[in-house]
């Protein structure tokens, strides 16, 4: 059970909720804050005090006063009009993350919603009812209005949901689980949609996948080192301590650990004096990507515990401030940074693939073919990797440098953070396929060298990978092999192999 209090949720806990389907609850102390915040909203409505988002219109309509008897209709109209997302839905895991993060933000007690709103969000998580939320349509300020409106629809018994492996109507799923729809009251519609939970939810899933992929990339690169008889001197700790980047030193340390007992790697001068950059500079390049990922993690851990709606209620309603915490710029920049970091893991991987298949760059059979000429071997797999890397270069263009004014120029600078997060997710998928191709090629390469001479760690990985993609004995439809390897890299629990940053650094 993961207990939410609005302040201490971690990425590890989010991962347990998303992938292990851990149940969720809320602390009593947090719910008391929610109740006090709600009392402040109800007093504002009763006293007819004019406060943005409670009894006014929204955006450019902020100067339009709404009568008390129309406040519920105002919230209904808000959700209906803002639920205009388009395109394919977010993956179900992202939708689950959005519900979790919105609940965690609201229980901070700054938003003025009734406790029942939070209870219903928790009900959705624990019943595994996940809103169907279109991916496109958010500017990333004022928050993720369109995506979160589709989430709010479900609380009202409208829209569609993922439920028991199918897409069905929200009211059907709620009825099956005995969950009553809600009629939104003052401030509640705005509180549900004025936030960064779409971009942050995608960002969290991105980070969890990218962290895993970055670790896998080091093991895959280690097998490539064996296939190409790589020189281990470049991974000597003194080299990396001399530069001073912790992440660079950690990468070198992990690869040294993986290859410590290998009989396939070489030393300076045995076969050649130095390797190409794609081998020699693995710690420098991968380490820099880890630096970026660490930055992303830091921002996400702040954002998943942030109050991001507007206005915010302080001091039991004595202070109500209309600010801009919904602006997604911190996450927008983080997602753009992540895009570049992961794209570079694929970039250098593709260069290692080229070294594995190009007979002018190694002494392996041309294109790792069992019968060069008659059979093409891995020739076109390298083409595929090159195509994915090139696509990543276009996707890596920063979304955050763009802004289009909205709401009659009242909202005149926006983050485009959700676009950045979506593109980062595409880059991660592309990068994983590139690394899957490198692994297929590296496995073939070490077989030519002698599997019995591999290091214990890489041999263990080799044995697992060979259960997914068998030896290339003749040309076949390699698309299936790439996709199978990609899925294996995405879904396998590497912690049971001891392959985590903490354990490999110990």
Automatic annotation (TrEMBL):
<dbReference type="GO" id="GO:0005737">
    <property type="term" value="C:cytoplasm"/>
</dbReference>
<comment type="similarity">
    <text>Belongs to the PAL/histidase family.</text>
</comment>
<dbReference type="GO" id="GO:0004397">
    <property type="term" value="F:histidine ammonia-lyase activity"/>
</dbReference>
<keyword id="KW-0369">Histidine metabolism</keyword>
<dbReference type="GO" id="GO:0019557">
    <property type="term" value="P:L-histidine catabolic process to glutamate and formate"/>
</dbReference>
<dbReference type="InterPro" id="IPR008948">
    <property type="entry name" value="L-Aspartase-like"/>
</dbReference>
<feature type="cross-link" description="5-imidazolinone (Ala-Gly)">
    <location>
        <begin position="141"/>
        <end position="143"/>
    </location>
</feature>
<keyword id="KW-0456">Lyase</keyword>
<protein>
    <recommendedName>
        <fullName>Histidine ammonia-lyase</fullName>
        <ecNumber>4.3.1.3</ecNumber>
    </recommendedName>
</protein>
<dbReference type="GO" id="GO:0019556">
    <property type="term" value="P:L-histidine catabolic process to glutamate and formamide"/>
</dbReference>
<keyword id="KW-0963">Cytoplasm</keyword>
<dbReference type="InterPro" id="IPR001106">
    <property type="entry name" value="Aromatic_Lyase"/>
</dbReference>
<comment type="pathway">
    <text>Amino-acid degradation; L-histidine degradation into L-glutamate; N-formimidoyl-L-glutamate from L-histidine: step 1/3.</text>
</comment>
<dbReference type="InterPro" id="IPR024083">
    <property type="entry name" value="Fumarase/histidase_N"/>
</dbReference>
<dbReference type="InterPro" id="IPR022313">
    <property type="entry name" value="Phe/His_NH3-lyase_AS"/>
</dbReference>
<dbReference type="Pfam" id="PF00221">
    <property type="entry name" value="Lyase_aromatic"/>
</dbReference>
<feature type="modified residue" description="2,3-didehydroalanine (Ser)">
    <location>
        <position position="142"/>
    </location>
</feature>
<dbReference type="InterPro" id="IPR005921">
    <property type="entry name" value="HutH"/>
</dbReference>
């Amino acid at each position: 059970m993961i207990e939410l209090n609005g302040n201490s949720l971690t990425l590890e806990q989010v991962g347990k909720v998303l992938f292990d389907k851990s149940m969720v609850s809320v602390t009593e102390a947090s719910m008391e804050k929610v109740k006090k915040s709600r009392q402040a909203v109800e007093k504002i409505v009763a006293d007819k005090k004019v406060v943005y988002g409670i009894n006014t219109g929204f955006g450019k309509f902020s100067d339009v006063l709404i009568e008390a008897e129309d406040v519920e209709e105002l919230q209904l109209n808000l959700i209906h009009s803002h639920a205009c997302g388009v395109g394919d839905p977010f993956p179900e895991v992202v939708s689950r993350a959005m519900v979790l993060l919105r609940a965690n933000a609201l229980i901070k007690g700054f938003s003025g919603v009734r406790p029942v709103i939070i209870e219903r969000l928790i009900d959705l998580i624990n019943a595994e009812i996940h809103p169907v939320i279109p991916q496109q349509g958010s500017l990333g300020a004022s928050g993720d209005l369109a995506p979160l409106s589709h989430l709010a629809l479900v609380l009202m018994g409208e829209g569609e949901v993922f439920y028991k492996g199918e897409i069905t109507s929200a009211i059907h799923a709620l009825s099956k689980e005995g969950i009553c729809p809600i009629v939104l009251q003052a401030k509640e519609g705005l509180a549900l949609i004025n936030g960064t939970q779409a971009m942050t939810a995608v960002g969290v899933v991105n980070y969890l996948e990218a962290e895993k992929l970055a670790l896998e990339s080091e093991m895959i690169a280690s097998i490539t080192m064996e296939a190409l008889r790589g020189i281990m001197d470049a991974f000597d700790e003194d080299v990396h301590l001399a530069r001073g980047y912790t992440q660079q030193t950690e990468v070198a340390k992990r690869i040294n650990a993986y290859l410590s007992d290998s009989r396939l790697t070489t030393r300076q001068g045995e076969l050649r004096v130095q390797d190409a950059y794609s081998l020699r500079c693995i710690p420098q390049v991968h380490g820099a990507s880890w630096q970026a990922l660490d930055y992303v993690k830091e921002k996400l851990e702040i954002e998943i515990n942030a109050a991001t709606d507007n206005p915010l209620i302080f001091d039991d309603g004595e202070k109500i401030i209309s600010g801009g915490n919904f602006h997604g710029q911190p996450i927008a920049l983080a997602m753009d940074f992540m895009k570049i970091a992961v794209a570079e893991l694929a970039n250098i991987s593709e260069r290692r693939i080229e070294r594995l298949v190009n007979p002018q760059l190694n002494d392996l059979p041309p294109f790792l073919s069992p019968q060069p000429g008659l059979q093409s071997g891995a020739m076109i797999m390298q083409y595929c990797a090159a195509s994915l890397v090139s696509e990543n270069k276009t996707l890596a263009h920063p979304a955050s440098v763009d802004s289009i004014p909205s709401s009659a120029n009242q909202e005149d600078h926006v983050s485009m953070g959700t676009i950045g997060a979506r593109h980062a997710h595409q880059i991660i998928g592309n990068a994983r396929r590139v690394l899957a191709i490198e692994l297929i090629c590296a496995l073939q390469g070490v077989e030519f060298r002698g599997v019995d001479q591999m290091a214990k760690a890489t041999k263990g990985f080799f044995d697992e990978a060979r259960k997914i993609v068998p030896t290339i004995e003749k040309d076949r439809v390699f698309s299936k092999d790439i996709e199978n390897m990609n899925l294996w890299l995405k879904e396998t629990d590497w912690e049971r192999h001891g392959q985590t940053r903490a354990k490999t650094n110990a």
